[in-house]
């Protein structure tokens, strides 16, 4: 099977690339050439340069194309123009943050409505899905939608100071307070990228998946406090947690000129996220998530600490966390 990944070396897509190679898929990466993976054929072009991409791809047809880095309708329309009639399947990476906010049901299924009035990122993903559904219905474009939720490998899942940063871990090691939104009890599902890859591989080349949408998550829903405690345990420390409302965190972040915090909190992390994975297990019966967060986060921390260049401590994040902690202390004293 001949498969093209647009991207392919990111937090989630690296695990899927490795799984594809292990399953003897002939894998190609289309990117700007900054990263290369052994066993993968690299096609060098910037996806935003359509003419360059056409030149690189002109002699190829595909069993499946996966775009890991499309975020807007213009970008998926570009993909439609590039790959219509040239691939048997096109997989779009959407986001579980597109699901209804606030949720009316306690468990999310693929039939949960898509509606997020709080986050542009999510609204763009919804618009992409709408456009691709139109091309599927009217142009027979062979679309499969995948909606990852909070999936980690080389990122740190934390309310603040995580993701590609090491800031939250540095604070934990130093005994400094860290911030968790709300009262810390809201359930949240985390999925290791290696587990995600097990299910995703089963969708590639799966004719029954055409025209369908799936989320792929573990079944381990942890409270946000528990997530941060596991993070602290992974580095042999205790978590000094300070709670603040999501709205208060977002307001202080706005005042500090960090508007991205508002969307990810009020448009995603502030709400419970528990998923029903019946559908993906029906289409990929072998799928089972087997990496608990307490184990997976140790692997993630080890990856960061294997190279000091990865252990990025962002002083802007430190300042934001300090501001939030101080604000909570002032309110507590009043």
From TrEMBL:
This is Nucleoside-diphosphate-sugar epimerase. Residues 4-206 form the NAD-dependent epimerase/dehydratase domain. SUPFAM superfamilies: NAD(P)-binding Rossmann-fold domains (SSF51735). PANTHER family: BIFUNCTIONAL POLYMYXIN RESISTANCE PROTEIN ARNA (PTHR43245). InterPro entries: Epimerase_deHydtase (IPR001509), Lipid_A_modif_metabolic_enz (IPR050177), NAD(P)-bd_dom_sf (IPR036291). It comes from the Bacteria.
